[in-house]
Amino acid sequence: MIRVFLLIFLFIHSSLAQKATAPPTKKWMTLSGEQPLVIARGGFSGLFPESSSFANQMTESVSLNGVVMLCNLQLTSDGVGICLSDIRLDNSTTISSLFPKGAKSYTINGVNLRGWFSLDFTSDVLLNNVSLVQNIYSRPTLFDGQFPISTVEDVTGLKPAHFWLNVQYDSFYNQQKLSPAAYVEDALTRMSIGFLSSPEIGFLKSMNGKVNKQKTKLIFQFLGLDEVEPTSKQKYGSILNNLANIKTFASGILVPKDYIWTVNANGYLGAPTTLVSDAHKQGLEVYASGFANDMPLSYNYSYDPSNEYIQFIDNSQFAVDGVLTDFPPTASEAIGNPLVISNNGASGIYPGCTDLAYQQAVDDGADIIDCSVQMTKDGVAFCLASADLAADTTAMMPFIDRKALIPEIQQEMGVFSFALTWSELQTVKPQIANPFGNTAMVRNPAAKNMGKFMTLSDFLEYAKAKAVSGILINIENAAYLASKEGLDIVGAVTTALSNATFDKQSTQQVLIQSDDTSVLSKFKNVPTYKRVLLIKEKIGDASKQSVQEIKKYADGVTITRGAILEIADFFIVSQTNVVKELQAANLTVYVKQLRNEYVTLAFDYFSDPIVEIATYAKSIQVDGFMTDYPGTATKYFRSPCSNLEKKGTVPYAILPAEPGSLLGLAGPEAQPPAAPPAAALEVADVVDPPLPPVADKAADKAPTASPTKSPSSGWANAANLGFSTFAAIVVYGFALC
């Protein structure tokens, strides 16, 4: 019956939530720069008995793609490998009740142990008679006695993305005429073992010439600092002082988490050790063990286990290469959320790109803060949403005599930043832009003109001081500025980044975004920068050739909401394949731009911006989104109601919208007419001509225009106020969380 319930649970889970996928955008401080691995000790052993079939199956269902399944190897008397952490079986199986006289005593690594040992029983006896039980008494006993012991072949038969075999007791088994090395050699011919670890140096050295190091990583496991390693007879604490020697026989180390972050007698974190940095300098990966949600944590984590993972993988100093855990969903949750990227700071609350907008974005927990770079007449680079000052400043009236039409930039008249000097710009005030035109829906009137403009240099220093996860620098109109205004915006950005040493560090991510591939090419020589192509046009598809062309210039792509979801009469009709096509080519995908105002939301979101965020994060699985209200996005990710794994245990689960489901409730006669499909992205839409040289422009020369394609227009919606009553149900549900 339990098996039936689990199958039903898995079906419901797969129906309500897509598998979590970690955002590949982030430049992690791991040795490889890739995201840390989630390593499941015996599968989901925090819920089910270790290495049981359910523990292993559930791990695949509720964890990040690429989760590693770890098996602690024990051997039976006939040399069959089984998966259990403790060499004594009585704490994790029913063996003591079945064979009450089967206990024996052995000296293992100098310690006398009494219990029931796998090497005293044949595989036939163990696999056909003995069942697993939960070996930590605070965990559920509901599944005790339901599952047989799993062999190594049982686990690898599930075809996990990665398999880790840990050989704990090589010396002891050899004393009993059983050879773990021989078992592993044979296993390597029959299965894929991505990681092979042991706390015994002799075993790892013996395997050095027997494994394909391109396929199998050898990992040295550290035990307690005062415990003695069997081969060298040294304490592990002493071995730790010679990481260079470890590198001669292993590619990484597995250490208890307190090797990295110590906890003092009062239950608070001390300073981190330098182990991770020291090991990375030697080319050694570092994996941390001992993570479990139901074990005492430092008070610094406020009883939130995800905070502990973040402390190890996303602090400003280092990131371990993987975490070994009994609760893989929590580790996945800590690693796998999309990036929250501000759009001109928290521009829905304060005037965009001002000091107050950036401070609000930081306070709201944005991962990335952004600066769209503009240039003044005298060459000062600063942050503002648009080169046209009309929407974001009060410059229109005092400088109306400098109003101009520049088709290369936009189709409307404007007062442009490069028509004013920096000192002239200081005479005007910032203002909150109104994306909705002349309507009654305005943003935060009390703060309409608050804040100060920030130069690019000031922005970079601010980002460093606040230790945000990263920055996004957006560059547009480079060709026009160079050829017609004599302004080198690319050079200005390059110099500012270098002066702020962003080109010499990897602690904070640097995203360089532009709609011009020639601009992106200028930054290809700084490997720590990630280049992002901005596609403003609404597209319905992306040809394979165009995607491959993008990869020549960029690591990621920013697209509009209209390129992802087809909307008619404010109902979601369907989802395009654009995100899947881009991600399949290993391009990260960001969506812009999200807003809270209900007039920007399809009815399917119930006038609730949280539901839109859930749709992009959980269903569509974008790698990040740019929002005027980063606080709304971070509120969603902090809410337990965002975790679909916990549905049924929270008052309300925030489910993503399903394209077409709401529209499908209406009769055929009420369906909106089918819209023509948006054009597919082709190679010609991707590649831009080389940037022109920077002109030596006379100070009094007026700007001139040349034909060019116009920027795509923003998405404008109208509101259906009657529908907001239904949205209140969702708002109430979220408030309960």
UniProtKB/TrEMBL annotation:
The signal peptide annotation in the UniProt record is 1-17
Q: Where is the GP-PDE domain?
A: 36-335, 338-637
Q: Which GO terms describe its biological process?
A: glycerol metabolic process; lipid metabolic process
What spans are recorded as compositionally biased (Low complexity)? 701-713
Which superkingdom is the protein from? Answer: Eukaryota
EC number(s) on file = 3.1.4.46
Stored Pfam families: GDPD (PF03009)
List the catalysed reactions: a sn-glycero-3-phosphodiester + H2O = an alcohol + sn-glycerol 3-phosphate + H(+)
Cross-referenced CDD domains: GDPD_SHV3_repeat_1, GDPD_SHV3_repeat_2
Q: Which GO terms describe its molecular function?
A: glycerophosphodiester phosphodiesterase activity
Keywords in alphabetical order: Glycerol metabolism, Glycoprotein, Hydrolase, Signal
Region Disordered, annotated ranges: 694-713
Protein name, UniProt field? glycerophosphodiester phosphodiesterase
Q: Which organism is it from?
A: Ziziphus jujuba var. spinosa
Q: What is the lineage of its organism?
A: Eukaryota, Viridiplantae, Streptophyta, Embryophyta, Tracheophyta
